[in-house]
Amino acid sequence: MKNLISIFIILLLTNCRNATDNVSVKKDLKDRVSGKEVSQTKIIIPVKISQPFLLNDIKCIWKQIDSISGATTLELRDYKTQRILLTHSDYFKSENDFNEQDYFNEHFQDLNFDGFKDFLITSSGSSAMTDMINIFVFNKKTKSFEFSEELSDNAIEEKDSINRILSTSSFTIDNEIRKKHYFNKNGTLKYSEIITRIDLSEDDSTSHYKNNYEKVVNGKVVMAKEYTTME
């Protein structure tokens, strides 16, 4: 009988010790997890803010937010109200820092000939063929910039301020597309002429092209014709 009681006491003490050990293990694990969470490194996203500058009679600032992926978000804000006038995120090509005067000469130009500066910036494609000049036109009523899909293109060929014509172009492996956008005095787009030129040359002696011409008004083709040229 005494032996049975002794065995019972030994088992009871062993179970109590194991329980204490388990609690200790759990506490250690909790402490380790807790410690790991505290030591995690916070990722800081670089943000740059320009000095105030005057644009279209509005005191503005630029805000540039760089991401881990390499893309950049640009925000143009009203300096007094902090209202966003323009925002755009992409992989950009720019030769100048936005705190330099050359940056504003490069990216703020009157592209629809209404006397107000518009915004343009080139997105980086996989090649020169897939680069895109994004054009944002200034809206005088809302005092903000609106993206123009019609005007955005691969390259700007000419700005004819006398006749108010913006000429742009793009190209693929098979053809070249040339556009001329005609504006009235208040900067409204009257119509666009689009010529898609396809090279039909069979040798190097003479260049032979097929040209598809379209006149577009308010997004609709109102005239189309096809003709060939030799160069």
Describe the structure.
- The longest helix has 37 residues.
- It is built from 2 helices and 16 strands.
- The chain is globular, with a radius of gyration of 33 Å.
- The protein has 231 residues and is α+β, with helices and mostly antiparallel strands.
- The N terminus is likely disordered.
- Helix content is 19%, strand content 45%.
- The strands form 3 sheets. A 6-stranded antiparallel β-sheet has the order 11-12-13-14-15-16, with no helix packed on it.
- Strand 13 and strand 14 form a beta hairpin.
- This is Lipoprotein.
Topology record:
Layout: H1 2-38, E1 47-49, E2 53-55, E3 58-66, E4 72-78, E5 84-90, E6 92-93, H2 101-107, E7 108-109, E8 118-123, E9 132-139, E10 144-147, E11 155-160, E12 165-171, E13 175-183, E14 189-199, E15 208-217, E16 220-230
Antiparallel strand pairs: 1-3, 2-3, 3-4, 4-5, 6-8, 7-8, 8-9, 9-10, 11-12, 12-13, 13-14, 14-15, 15-16
Protein name: Lipoprotein
Quick overview:
The protein has 231 residues and is α+β, with helices and mostly antiparallel strands.
